[in-house]
Amino acid sequence: MNIDWSIFRNINFLFYLSSIWVSSLGGAIFTIVLTWMLVESTGSSAVVGTYLFLLGMSKLIFILFSGVIVDRFKAKNLLIASDWIRGGIMFLFVLIRLQGSPPLWVFYIMGIVFGMVDALSEPAAITCRIQIVEKKYYSQSLSVLTIATQISAVIGPAIGAWFVKFTGGVSAIALNGVAFIISGLLLMGTRFREVQEKDKEPKEKLWSSFVEGIRYFITTPIIFTMAVFALFANAAVSTINVSIPFLAKNLGFGVLGFGWMTTAIGIGGFIGALLFSVIMITNPRPVMTLYTCFFQGVILLLVSFVDRFWLVIFLFMLIGFQETAVNVIAPSVNHSIIPRKMFGRVLSVMILVMTGSQPISQALAGWAMKWTGPQSIFLYAGLLEMISAVIVFLFPFVRRFQVNKKESTEMETV
After folding, report:
1. Fewest CB atoms within 10 Å of the CB: 80, 120, 175, 266?
2. 127 and 115 Cβ atoms separated by less than 8 Å
3. CB 232 within 8 Å of CB 354
């Protein structure tokens, strides 16, 4: 591990960082506002779970196609377009909200559209980042970006909760729309390195390039195994999005308590991101992800047994810290292995596999809470993440894998 500050002298990265921060702040505010609107208007965990299911499924349906698109067009332009589309959706929702309480189908349609846009923006954003920084700064750039998003996660929920309590939330939604527009403008001022001609895929090979990305994913054991592990880990962690508002309501914490819980995750994530932004992990290993996920499962399990406000807040801070560690280490391994010319395609397949369980687990958690409490959801989620980490740890090629050893990569690719 080495301390290195040179990434903060990269002007283009700072522009990109600012764009990500602005959009994530608006998104953090909107998540609180929209979720609490659904909770208050319907009182149904099943409705919240259904909304998240539709958002997640629409993203999964389009994610494979988005990877091919990102490999063939400028990721910068795709990311700007996705920001402005989301901004337009926010302003449209404001107009509908001013006419009265929106019908349930409006929330569902908005979730589907957001999922489609997210399917394009996520691989586009990652591709943009690797066109700004060198490979040795991958983990550090992830950490700095996580600082930005975690600052948003810290202050966004508090702002969103305040808007819901004192203004009804319409102005918060409008603010989110403005944030997406500003994010797109910042990206317009950012310069990215062009992909070398030898790394560009001929446009006539659309289907074959699509299949090539899937084949690479399946025939690279370390990529395939860790993606399948992430499928189960994400199934566990994603239930938090459904369970937190109902946990806050059951414990008598209210919307402000809901905001504090979400903010606590952001604070923990910010602390972790700050640490990893100055300490470079020069040799990230998959086993580091397994350790972190196992202990995150332990914390999820503990949440189900406590009801003291500040103890709950502390546990959520630990969850946020561990989530940041995973989001820095795991992508650093994957991004260092995947060939640049097929980055978007392979990444989209990975996202499909890793996040494929999220909408299903969120929907199941929402329906399960009709018969059991949110504490039980945290219990089962913690057990699932812990057991998954232990099983994958038993594979020798996962325990021994090291990114910086060329022979290791060659050995694991068959």
Report:
1. 175
2. no
3. no
Say whether pTM exceeds 0.85.
Answer: no
Which 3 state secondary structure label does DSSP give 280?
Answer: strand
Whose structure tokens read 């998959």?
A: 286
CA–CA distance, 165 with 179 (Å, rounded to integer): 21
Q: How far is CA 56 from CA 86, 108, 193, 358, in A?
A: 16, 11, 31, 7
- The neighbour count for residue 366, using CB atoms within 10 Å, is 25
DSSP H helices in 99-196: 104-130, 138-167, 170-188
Q: How far apart are the C-alpha atoms of 164 and 366, rounded to whole Å?
A: 22
The two tokens of residue 85 are 């589309």
Here the tokens at position 261 are 């819980």
Residue 369 DSSP one-character state: T
Buried b (16+ CB within 10 A) or exposed e, 275-303: ebbbebbeebbbbbbbbbbbbbbebbbbb
The predicted-structure confidence for 76-128, as pLDDT tens digits, reads as follows 888 888 888 888 888 888 888 788 777 888 888 888 888 888 878 877 877 77
